[in-house]
Amino acid sequence: MNKRQIPILFLRYVAPLLVLGCAGWFVYSMGAQQRPKRKKPPVRKSIPVELVQARPHTGTLDIVVSGVAIPYRDVQLAARVSGEVVFKSESLSPGQVVDEGELLLRVDPSDYEIEVARLEQEVARAKLDIERLQLDKENTQRVLAINQDIVTVRRRDVQRLQRLQNVNATSASESDSVELALLSAMQQITSQENQLRTFDSQSKTMQTTLELANLQLRLAKLDLERAEIKAPFSGVVIANHVEQNGMLAAGAVVATIEDTSKVEVRASLRGEDMSFLQSGGYELPQIPVTVEYDRAGQTYAWNAVLSRQDGLGIDEKTRTIPVRICVDNPTQNCGSSNGSLALLRGMFVRVRLHCEPQQPLAVVPESVIRPGKTIWVMRDDQLQIERVRIARIEDGIAYLNTHNSSLKMNEQIISSPVPNAKPGLAVSMIANKPRRGATLSGSHQEYRPNRPKVLTTSATVSTASASARP
Fold first, then answer.
1. Which parts form a coiled-coil structure per UniProt (predicted)?
2. Average model confidence (pLDDT) for the chain?
3. Does pTM top 0.85 for this prediction?
């Protein structure tokens, strides 16, 4: 064996034996160590939480929206006849107040007075023609009666001559003359009867002529009345388009008058607001409304009523529902000691709709609403997750619709944060300091909102600027 074969034999036989021996020693040493003792998991305690109670909402619920006052109606007065303006009232000026029936304008009535007089003569002449025809008819009837008597006498003469002729006591010529006289009398009767029928036809024609003359006379009198333009209602003149001694054409606009007996307010409601108002159908309930206007740090209010939808459907641009509110007495303020103020067009106002909820509502703080529209409820000292239907959230108050809901009134709702919240998690009540707007009741908080239940919306009037405020 030479020296070169020694390393080869060592790597082939001795090295593997050394590796196996080291591995066996390592396994033996690891098995000889003592296993550490397992610690028992600690008993998990319940998580202390703060609670509030869901309280039922009672009474009315105010929905507050912004709106703008608009005229109840404004009417454009137009001339019905043409002519020169011979009178113009001083009240017919922008900003002037006019009373119902007040004379505002007069057109020169001379032509219309002449036309009325002419047609009155036409009517009188038609009446005279009818009277003359009636008189001729009566005379003809009397003559006809006489001729009928003559015919009766002529027939007796003919019968007498026939008896005489049978005994040859008269001549044939005498008999012919008597018969000829009878035929002549009968001819006169026929002519007079035809004349009576002609009188009936002429009477109908004359009666139609009289009625036509009366209609023309009525139209002429209407034109004469229309020469004077009067205020159709009490209101304020908005615009004037005519001056005295000016020529006025039929159909031309004279002035614009706004009716001040009532004022309407145009507002817009969000879709969720309609759930408090609309129970079905297209008509809205006539609920009471308070319209408020702020000026110089003072608030003025008017009583009103929800009138109707302004059209039908949802506004495509704002996705709101336009409505109209009617103020029956815009000059009388309610519950205001700041003096009197009339509600005028263009005022940006605040509208409070006092509605009665159609379904039961529960009132809770907004902070208890969890992601996914859920709340955490403690039942049997365990956390349960309930999905809720939120009717409205405003000013830190959440109104929950409890109709057909598993959420019960006065149920304990968890208001504090809970890590890793999941159904069945053990929780317990703790006593804590009362927060603003809540009072302590045992080991939970009873939520009592200390401000009025008011729902506000940022929906703006479709015709007003989105940044305008009342």
1. 116-143
2. 81
3. no
